[in-house]
Amino acid sequence: MKLSRLLLAAVVLPLAACSTLTDPPVDPDAAAHLTFQLIPSGNPDSPLGVLLSWEVPSSGRANSFNVYGRNSTSSQWDLRATTTSTSFHDIGVPQRQYYIGTRDLDGQEIAQSQILTIDLVTARLPAPQGLISVSLNGAIQLAWSSNAVDASHGTFDHYIVYSTSYDVARSVCTTDWAIEGSTVADAFYAGNLTNGESRCFAVSAVTQDGHESSWSDQRLDTPRLDARNAFVYNSTARPDSAGFVFFDDVANKAGVVGASSRTDLDFRLERHTDGTLWLTPARTSVTMMAYASTRVEDLTSIDRAPSSGYSNAALEALPGNAYVFRIMKPDGVHFAAARVAFKTDTYVVFDWSYQTAPGNAELNRIPMP
User: Fold this and answer.
1) Which terminus of the chain has fewer Cβ atoms in its 10 Å neighbourhood, N or C?
2) What is the C-alpha separation between 247 and 179, in angstroms, rounded?
3) Is the predicted pLDDT of residue 7 greater than 50, yes or no?
């Protein structure tokens, strides 16, 4: 038993001595815990600035502080500011290194903090990957991979979502990028958008100390009109409510249910002798096709309108099935979609979408060209 105690003491004592030797000395006049917070700009190489923060020296002799910085680890130190605060906002691209000098009541420097080094490159997270979008009514739903978070759960803080207008004539995203918003989730809802106006989106990931990643790939999307749970009767049961207009240009109204006798209808619902209900193009300038050979999960599952395959033939209205319409108007071709949600012997309930931008086949989401 005595031997065991002696061996234990022999092991513990050297460890205690080693711990004491490695503890750094603390200068009570020096500013402690100097930290930084970068201010993202959208360009990871050029933050808008840096916010330095530190703690008041424990001695109580500090009256003010000198903030020093330099552009490299070997260049001369420059006095950036003198302040009585325990923080300093350095505007523009941050210096490579900073330290804080403590001044007493006589204005003499009596201590220096440890040197803080800022590395704009190695602490970045990877750019978010797999940016996708869903076209909505006056809005765009964005989503992307969690790869940036997965790369460093301990340093990730939030995402920044950027957007800009799209130049249709030149088929390019403009350079007027602005912050759409921020989020901690791998998704973002961009609302209050104008239907038919295309926008480009991109996402970056930001660490807790403000390091911003490179941007994701850009994404182009165009909001479009839509609505849920519209319904029309078949022309035999209720001819006054058997037709549908996706967008009435004269009344400037979307989703209009009308009489089967209207000449501007996009489709009618007709009942065949066997009791089945059919969606029928109502005029020669409207053609349609089945979007898929099987049921689709939701209206937002209806992706880009196909470029061919349309006809004036009627299609049976089946719950879960989706249909795409090609509508010729004076300003060009417009695309629309409908998904049958429910049907009875006399009417169908359906969800629909309509793209107000002529020639734009986007009904849900679209990759960059």
Assistant:
1) N
2) 32
3) no
Residue for token pair 């739903």: 141
Distance from C-alpha of 98 to C-alpha of 78, rounded to nearest angstrom: 9
Domain definitions of the chain by residue range: 10-117, 132-221, 225-354
Q: Is the pLDDT of residue 25 over 70?
A: no
Question: 267-323: per-residue pLDDT in tens?
Answer: 999 999 999 999 999 999 999 999 999 999 999 889 889 999 999 999 999 999 999
pLDDT (0 to 100) of residue 363: 81
Measured CA to CA, the distance from residue 185 to residue 357 in angstroms comes to 30
At position 337, the amino acid (one-letter code) is A
Find the Cα–Cα–Cα–Cα dihedral 262, 263, 265, 270, rounded to 10°: 70
Give the count of beta carbons closer than 10 Å to the beta carbon of residue 132.
Answer: 14
What is the value of pTM for the model shown? Answer: 0.83
In CATH terms, 132-221 corresponds, of 2.60.40.10, 1.10.260.40, 3.30.365.10, 3.40.190.10, to 2.60.40.10
Taking the C-alpha atoms of residue 52 and residue 81, their distance in angstroms, rounded to an integer, is 12
User: Residue 43: how many CA atoms within 13 Å on its side-chain side?
Assistant: 8
149-172 pLDDT per residue, tens = 999 999 999 999 999 999 999 999
| Pairing mode of beta strands 178-183, 199-207 | unpaired
92: left (phi over 0), alpha (psi -120 to 50) or beta: left
| Shared fold status for 10-117 and 132-221 | yes
- Measured between alpha carbons, how far is 328 from 314 in angstroms, rounded to an integer? 17
- 115: Cα within 13 Å, side-chain hemisphere: 12
- Of the candidates 223, 224, 263, 216, the one whose C-alpha atom is nearest the C-alpha of residue 243 is 263
CA distance 182 to 204: 10
Beta bridge partners of 39: 49
- Measured CA to CA, the distance from residue 137 to residue 353 in angstroms comes to 8
Task: Let me know if domain 10-117 sits in CATH 3.40.630.30.
Answer: no
From the list 200, 265, 203, 213, the residue with the least C-alpha distance to 239 is: 265
Q: What is the pLDDT of residues 170-180, one digit of tens each?
A: 999 999 999 99
